[in-house]
Structures are given as C-alpha cells and as structure tokens.
Amino acid sequence: MFNNFSRSIGEWFKKVGRSIADGFRATVSFIAHPRKTIREAKEARAAMINDVFDPIEHNPENILEVNSLKEYFPIKSGFLKRTVGYVKAVDGISFNIKKGTTMGLVGESGCGKTTVGRTILRLYPKSGGEVLFNGEDVNKFDKKSLRSVRPKMQIVFQDPYSSLSPRLPVGEIIGEAVREHNIVPQEEFDDYITKIMQSCGLQEYHKDRYPHEFSGGQRQRICIARALALNPEFIVCDEPVSALDVSIQAQIINLLRDLQKEYGLTYLFISHDLSVVEHISDSVGVMYLGSMVEYAPTAELFANPLHPYTEALFSAIPVPDPNYKMNRIILEGNIPSPANPPSGCKFHTRCRKCMEVCKSVIPKRIDMGNDHYVVCHLFDEEALKLNEEMKKDPSLAENADKKLKKNMKDAKLNSTENPFM
Ligand SMILES: Nc1ncnc2c1ncn2[C@@H]1O[C@H](COP(=O)(O)OP(=O)(O)OP(=O)(O)O)[C@@H](O)[C@H]1O
Ligand code: SF4
Ligand SMILES: [Mg+2]
After folding, report:
1. Quick one: which of 372, 397, 369 has its CA closest to 383?
2. What's the 109 CA to ligand 3 centre distance in angstroms?
3. Residue 357 CB less than 6 A away from ligand 1
4. Which of 1, 12, 364, 417 would suit a FRET pair with 348, their CA atoms being 20 to 30 Å apart?
5. 88/267 Cα distance (integer angstroms)
6. pTM of this prediction?
7. What confidence tens digit (pLDDT) does each residue in 71-93 have?
C-alpha cells in the first residue's frame, strides 16, 4: 500500500514538475522574445487547426452558406492547463440553405450536430471556415452589427423546460427580447405578444402563467413563440420534438411547417429521428464524427442512400407493414473519439464495405447528380484503382494519400474545394 502511495505521489510530482518546468521555460522565452513566442504559439495552433479553405461567392438564393466550418474544443492538461490537443467536434463541413426551405441534419449522438447549429449562430467562436448569413460573414460582425442581426437568427432547444426561466411569466419570457430589440412600438407590445402566442397555439390568458404550469408540448410552443417574436428569418431547431411524446411531436412539427409558410422562415432542423426529418426537410445532410458524409434532396436521399453509414442509419427506420422484413444493418463498435479520429475515412473502423484504400486515404466528395453528393471511395474510380494497386503492393499504403492527392491535382481537383456547394 505504501509502495502504491509513494508511486502515485512520484507520478504526480513528475507530471506537475514537468508542467512547472515547461511553464518556466515558456515564461523565460516570452520575456526574452515576446513577439517570436506569440507568433510561434499562433503558428502551432494554426498547424493543429489547419484552417485552409477557398472563400465562397454568395448566391442570393441562399440565406445561409457554411464553408469548411471547424469547431475544435481545446483539451487542456497539466498544472498550467496548456492546450495539448483538440476535440474536433465539427471538422470542415460545408452546406447551403435556400431561403424559405428546411435542411435536416442527422447523425449519431456526439457527431457534432448541436455544435454546428451553435457555431453558425456564433454562440461558440468558430475555429475555422466561414459562415455567410445573407452574404455577410457572421464572424466579422462587430458588437453593434451582431446585436442587430441576432434577432434574425434564432434557436429552439431540445429541452423546453430548462430553456425557460422558471421565475418569469410566459408573457414576459416571450416579450423580454422583443422589448430589448425594439421589435414593435410600446403601445403595440401587448397585441403583438398576443398575436404571436395565438399563432403558436397559446391563449392570451397564458401570459400570466409560469412555465411549470404547462405541459411539455405547450412549453415547446412557448419556446417557438419566443423565437418567432423576434421576427427571425432563420431558426436552428435543435431536436425540438425529441423530448415530447409522439402525438405532441406531430402537433409541433405541423406548427413549425405552418409558421414557415406564414412567415417565410428557413430552418436548420437537427434530429436523430429520421421519420421526422423526412417529413419536414427539403434537403438532408448526414454527419459522422464532425464531417458531412452525404447530402441530397430529401426524396432522393431516402430513395437512394449511398454512403454505407447512411445505409446503416436508414436501415433502422421502422416500416408500418407487418409483412415487411426489416434488413437492419448493425454498426459494430463504438463511435471513435473526435479528439483522435481514425486515419483515412473516419468511418473505416465500422464500415462493412471498408477497403484497403479507406484506411489511409481521405475520401473526397463525389457528385452523383440530382444535387446528391457522397464522400466515399466506393464511388470514386481513382480510389478504386488505387485500392487494386494497394492489394498487389501493400507498401503503397504508406504513400497512398500523397499519390491520390497528386492524381487529383493532375486532374485539377482541389481536395479543399467546398464539398456541398
Ligand atoms: N463545450 C464543449 N467542450 C468540449 N467538448 C464539447 C463541447 N460541446 C460538445 N463537445 C463535444 O463535441 C462533440 C459533439 O457534440 P454535440 O453536442 O455537437 O453532438 P450532437 O451530435 O449534438 O449529439 P446529440 O445527438 O447527443 O445531441 C462531442 O464529442 C462532445 O463531447
Ligand atoms: S470510404 Fe471506405 S470505409 Fe469509408 S464509407 Fe466508403 S467504403 Fe466505407
Ligand atoms: Mg445535440
């Protein structure tokens, strides 16, 4: 027991001692060469994040354009809490949303859906890439412009209870930000709140009640009314119905659709319920471990899923036919850590169609026509050819990624080009 104790004390000293020595070295270096030290730290961070992308040209049909967006959360370690790595929650994803439409975002728990929504709204500072809202980069807004654009971009959270203040009556919850942003003149305030509440299926007498006096579905209506009251153009709906029972889910989904028609709203609809996404979305993006692996218009994607991950996800959708035999694809293993994603294709550790080339070469997007894109070697002739060569000569694996990139360069393809524009 004493041995164990002394060993753990020794290890602790080793760790802390090293951190203190590192900290001391960093302080001395900063005092001696402050500019050089700051530049080197910035360079080290930039190398880890590798924020490289081609800027996009705004298309006025789109309300939102996301280009190579990255959100890396730092992993701190040691006595001085230095950054030793990053959780790559969102790792270079790109997509557009047309005005007045809904894009669904699906994927397993932890794949980065919420982080995408929050980074778009600047609730998290982005690590890389760009987000254009009506053609303007949201990350370049100063405080004043951000304040004026905030009401136009709203979010509805998954848990309607924890996102409502228990101490305020509903009229005040909905009206607080309306007053703050001067959405309507003071004399019209009461009528405006009543109108918004009614369009969300709430009654005027609900104004004086507190959140705990409502059912789950009614609370979600309050959250939607709160977002709607700011006269938004774009709403991130982050799993808005997953905490509700099925009959209430349908009511809320129909409410969101009606409001979209009435107010011309655009939604990013995050969910892992594929039936709900199919019902409400015009297009769907499928995420895996911080990357978008497939994107297509909803009908096209549900009729013809191409990526092995999408196939596995869709095979779990229940079919309302007792004679139908479900052919469910079970994904083996756990979702890998986004701090240390697998090399090559991030999905290769769980893919039943994995080939040799998938283990070392990052797949590029393939345009399958009909606005359908997939990021998988199975649809890339170049990669399939390389896979055949690798089977004959396993030593090729070491240089495989370089070779594919050279082939892509020769064919004038850019691996950093925006995959879903
Ligand atoms: N603030 C944070 N700090 C560090 N890591 C975070 C933070 N927020 C999210 N993460 C990590 O980022 C990854 C993506 O998380 P995110 O919440 O975006 O997933 P999700 O797809 O929305 O999952 P779910 O379907 O369960 O809501 C996860 O590995 C999570 O642990
Ligand atoms: S690239 Fe390979 S591992 Fe990745 S999804 Fe396609 S077949 Fe599977
Ligand atoms: Mg989430």
Report:
1. 397
2. 7
3. no
4. 417
5. 25
6. 0.86
7. 999 998 776 677 888 999 999 99
